[in-house]
């Protein structure tokens, strides 16, 4: 029943891409288009953990698909009443087409549906485009953490957005 509800939430956009819940078989496409630095096994395990969060109604995980290939990913995790968007990525060849905006917008809708009052998302300070996107979508900076994103600690700003019940 939950799976059928999720499948009904597939959104097709006029610019030729669709948003839909992730499937385990998406791992190969994600390796090629988004996460070349990772290995297939770790991506499969990550998808399985993400699906478990979704099936337990503690979040939502989706992909963007274009021309039969997965070209984007986003994960929403609900912590008691605060939700977090993480692992947001769009394949480089598909950036600047509104796909990141669509993913964040869809995950924001899911955060509301799950009862979150606050939504947060992190952006490495070196990723000015992501930071600007999140601000355009109504997120405001709240705190800075120093996280190891692969090449040593770097500042990551967490931005927040308070959600209304609409």
Explain this structure:
This protein is an alpha+beta fold and 166 residues long. It has a single domain (2-162), classed as Gcn5-related N-acetyltransferase (GNAT) (Aminopeptidase, 3-Layer(aba) Sandwich). The protein contains five helices and eight strands, in the order H-E-E-H-H-E-E-E-H-E-H-E-E. Helix 2 (27-33) crosses helix 3. It starts with a helix and ends with a strand.
Task: Note the topology.
Blueprint: H1 2-7, E1 11-12, E2 17-21, H2 27-33, H3 40-55, E3 59-66, E4 69-79, E5 82-90, H4 99-113, E6 118-124, H5 128-136, E7 140-148, E8 153-162
Parallel strand pairs: 5-6
Antiparallel strand pairs: 1-2, 2-3, 3-4, 4-5, 6-8, 7-8
Helix pairs in contact: 2-3
Please estimate the helix content. Answer: 25-40%
Low-confidence stretches: 1-10
As a whole number of angstroms, the C-alpha radius of gyration is 15 Å
Shape: globular
By CATH, the superfamily comes out as: Gcn5-related N-acetyltransferase (GNAT)
Q: Tell me the fraction of residues in β-strands, as a range.
A: 35-45%
Please name the CATH architecture: 3-Layer(aba) Sandwich
Helix vs. strand class: alpha+beta
| Terminal Cα span | 25 Å
Give me the count of strands.
8
Query: Strands across the major sheet, in which order?
Result: 1-2-3-4-5-6-8-7
Largest sheet: 8 strands, mixed
Short description:
The protein is an alpha+beta fold and 166 residues long.
